[in-house]
Design a protein that fits this description.
The protein is of the alpha/beta class and 414 residues long. Helix content is 45%, strand content 17%. It contains 16 helices and 14 strands. Helix 1 crosses helix 15 and helix 2 runs parallel beside helix 3. The model has no long low-confidence stretch (mean pLDDT 93).
């Protein structure tokens, strides 16, 4: 049987990493190529000037369009994304002259326009993975530009695609509700994790000594410093927690648009002597922080999945997460981690105190969690995604002329 050839579009791919999307797409692409799924994987992404235009990595053919560094101002960023899509479309057309693709798979709104046009040109199905939504990130406030523009593209993209993939059952319901999709068109496939890649630095004792004394407990907050991640709730809980447990210290690791406000909040709460803001950190330091911390807190207001919680559990660090979104599925019960009432600093503080005061509880959670994370296996994720590809291609072939209704509309240019 000839291999199924898929073109995956992503605005980031290693070594160019903006966030978790690059890591997800890389592991998915490589896992698809590695398994006996008979899938020929091509990735179309962007690169910087020093990046090779084409290379094969771990069985994946990576094609890059060179783009200038992205602007930080959101209005300029939207215009930049439009140019990037035009460049990706041109590069994709050239790839289509060299290869026949059976499926185009786009990741999030940033590559939606190029992905849809290429699927139409190749006369093949369009699959999209929606990792998060603008509606969710802004708690429904998407009436003004550029949020309204991004929300509009996401709505259009979701309804143009033959199949949509989400990372959690929570996201399936969320996407179905805000975009008006039938849930049968949405496949739930969780993110994966590879514990062997969570490699720490060599000297963990020296690293820990930078942040806490041997008799102190270290609380870790890590991720993009944006409002929806809820770090402001954790900071609000810390003064009372430290009053009750004076030996608590904290680390905030990450960067983002909310960083300055969080630093100011910490100072106003009198926390400067109790913790450290590290800013952006590399993967080796990140993986090390999980191993030296006594507790990782994930206080998100909006969380489609909860990869930080999964990484912490895989690294042997107890986890406390908000009882919301995909975190409920990553931490499904009190055998593997604890949950606090979402948006409630008092609940967060009380649960953190419980965990930091009980060594036996933390040890039990670590033991159970390290078994739990094995169910988030990248090989299994790839098998499920390959099955979505096959189902979508087979569905299109069952209709007259070899096209489903949406595929027929695409071919007609509607």
């Amino acid at each position: 049987m000839d291999p199924m050839r898929v073109l995956i579009l992503s605005w980031e791919y290693p070594p160019l990493i903006e966030g978790g999307l690059a890591r997800h797409v890389r592991k998915l692409a490589e896992s698809l190529a590695a398994q006996e799924a008979n899938v020929d994987v091509h990735v179309l992404t962007r690169g910087m000037e020093e990046s090779p235009a084409e290379e094969e990595i771990a069985g994946v053919s990576v094609h890059r369009v060179r783009e200038p560094e992205r602007p930080r101002e959101l209005g300029e960023f939207v215009t930049w994304v439009e140019h990037m899509n035009a460049d990706m479309l041109a590069a994709g057309v050239e790839l289509g002259d060299r290869y026949e693709f059976d499926v185009v798979h786009g990741h999030d709104w940033l590559v939606a326009v190029a992905g849809d046009h290429l699927a139409k040109r190749f006369r093949c199905p369009f699959v999209v993975t929606i990792h998060a939504t603008e509606y969710g990130r802004h708690q429904g406030w998407v009436d003004e530009h550029p949020q309204s523009h991004i929300h509009g593209i996401e709505h259009w993209m979701a309804n143009r695609a033959e199949r949509v993939i989400t990372c959690s059952a929570y996201m399936r319901e969320h996407v179905s509700d805000i975009y008006g999709l039938e849930e049968g068109r949405i496949a739930v496939i969780p993110n994966g994790i590879d514990p062997s890649e969570l490699v720490p630095v060599d000297d963990l004792d020296t690293l820990r000594a930078r942040f806490a004394k041997p008799d102190e407990k270290l609380l870790l907050l890590v991720g993009r410093l944006v409002y929806e991640k809820g770090f402001q709730l954790a900071l609000e809980a810390l003064p009372r927690l430290i009053e009750r447990l004076p030996n608590v210290r904290f680390i905030v690791a990450g960067s983002g648009t909310h960083e300055e406000a969080l630093r100011k909040q910490a100072s106003e709460l009198g926390l400067d002597d109790y913790g450290t803001f590290l800013g952006w950190i590399g993967d080796d330091v990140l993986h090390s922080l999980y191993r030296i911390a006594d507790l990782t807190v994930v206080p998100s207001i909006y969380e489609p999945f909860g990869l930080v919680a999964l990484e912490a559990m895989a690294s042997g660090c107890p986890c406390l997460v908000a009882d919301t979104g995909g975190l409920r599925e990553v931490v499904p019960n009190e055998n593997v981690g604890l949950r606090f009432h979402s948006r409630d600093p008092r609940s967060l503080g009380e649960m953190a105190e419980r965990l930091l005061s009980d060594d036996a509880l933390r040890e039990r959670l670590v033991a159970e969690a390290q078994e739990h994370v094995l169910s988030f296996d990248w090989a299994d994720v790839a098998r499920q995604v390959a099955e979505v590809y096959r189902e979508t291609v087979a569905e299109s072939a069952r209709y007259a002329g070899g096209s489903s209704r949406r595929l027929a509309e695409r071919r007609a240019g509607t």
